[in-house]
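3.2 Worked example (two chains)
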Amino acid sequence: MTPAELLARLKERWQALTQTQKIIATLVTVGIVVSLFFIVQLALRPAYAPLLTGLDPKDAGAIVEELKSMKVPYEIADQGKTIKVPEAQVYETRIQLASSGALGGGMGFELFDQSKFGQTDFEQQVGYQRALQEELRRTLVQIEGVEQARVHLVIPQKSVFVNTDQGNASASVALKLKPAVRLKDEQVQGVCDILVGSLEGLKPENVHIIDTEGNVLSDNLNTSDPKAVMTRTAQDQQKAQREYEKELERRVQQMLARILGQDKAVAMVTADLDFNQQQTTSTTSTNPQNLKLSEHSIKESGSGSETGGAPGTDSNVTTTPFMEGSGSSSYTKEEIETNYQVSTVQETIVNAPGSVRRLSASVVVSEADGPVDTQKVKDVVAAAIGFDQSRGDQINVSNMVFDDTYQKKVEDEMTQAETAAKLRENIITYATIGGIILAVILVVVGFIAMRRRIAQRVDDDEQPLIPLKEMEVEEVPVYRDDKQQKVRDMAKEKPEDIAELLKVWIKE
């Protein structure tokens, strides 16, 4: 079929439609065109990604104005707290906003890039304080879990003419944490160290850190105050003791749950820990016998005669034995030096703090299922916690009936909640399936009806037109294809059979 024939056929079909059908067809065509237009727009539209989240209205307005000047398409979501841009332009746009200073916060040491003439000392001091606060803020927001930060510094003013105490430096920090984030003590200590290292004369006890929920985070910081140090040490010792007790309780509870069943026993442990540090130095001998270490011996002996004159120069001259004058002498010397030393070992023992001085354990076993051998329970608990009788450890095991009313109530509520949740899920599932099936049925029925209409229109178009006069002359026989007519025809053809059938019905 050529395009001209197809166009002519469509024109004939259009002229054959009624006015209502033409309106409906026009509306359907317009709807299809509009739908296709929007579908194409959605398909060609770039994917948007969050540029910035959790913005204040003031910051969001400034960023939107900057994006308009940059001619970057954007979207606002989350009630104005989130700004989205095309995914391919997120990082480039973020860098441009950061370089333009539109991301919030003030200027750091960039304030001193432009030198101003005629500044007073007070203006320079304020500028330095603003720059330092902004630099510290930029550093703190890089910490994991910190979303925003505000830093306030108090810097004493120094004077070369007046030698007076102008006060101590102090710092206050307000942190906005990310949702469900809690800073560790090490992170809070790191924030304090950053501030102390950045401001001259700042002491840890003058640093105050809070979050936007009002929680004071600087209570456990390391300070030089002896009272604060003692308090923190006592808190750390109590925390270590409680963690040790919880670990023993967990081990005992887990073991009894495997033996007696879940929720059949309750265990509590109390530990007395020694946090005193002791150092012991001892010296022991490894060689009790006196062994000779070294010996030094000198022996001298001599005999003979000497001759000599009066003292003087002549007497210092050695003469031969044949000279006049004679004398006799004898000399003996013996010197022995012996050193003895005993080998020793010096040992220094440092006992680390936290040793166990005493343990006390209390175990209560449920007797709802019958009596329990408390001695066996005591033996297994003693082995689990490291029982030592020489330390004075104690273990108490008792049988009691547990009150499980609250537990049953909680279990019933949980069961009802689970049942209701499952019922809602089933209803949603069945409703979804039913909706899908109904939609499919409607689509199929509509498709079949449309095909029938199209086929009927094609048949009507193909049937030859009959003149009105011929339709009036020709008589069309009327056929009644109903049950009564069939019964009448059967009665005429087989009256005997009908009579027998009526007799049987009457007898019944």
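3.2.1 Second chain
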Amino acid sequence: MMETYEPSAELKALDRLVGSWAVTGGAEGTVRYEWMPGRFFLLQHVELTQFGQPVTGLEVIGNLRPFGEPAGADVVSRFYDSTGNTLDYVYELSGDKLTIWGGAKGSPAYYEGVFSADGATVDGAWVYPGGGGYPSTMTRI
């Protein structure tokens, strides 16, 4: 008998991201979020310019469920870009605060942003170890 699964509540909370967004700040361009059928994975299509370089890629966001194991608790992702990079992240949405850690949860490299009351913007910043980082705002288009 085949087991049935449901997407996690933590993943479902990211439904607020679905749609197209204009990105401004340290990176400029657009991102678009959409659900894969079944809603177990959220896809982010990225077309940005950062530090004068194009960044085009696809991010797959969801709970890992390795063969024969239960789903992991964290909402994780892997970003694949057009230059061959693969970057891992952990997503958390608590109330209106979105946190995206670079690498593992609790990493010193992270994004923290807050949804506006109408859900039309997410305003925040990327923070990097050693004081680096940049502001980043997404506005729904």
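3.3 Remarks
The chain has one helix and ten strands.
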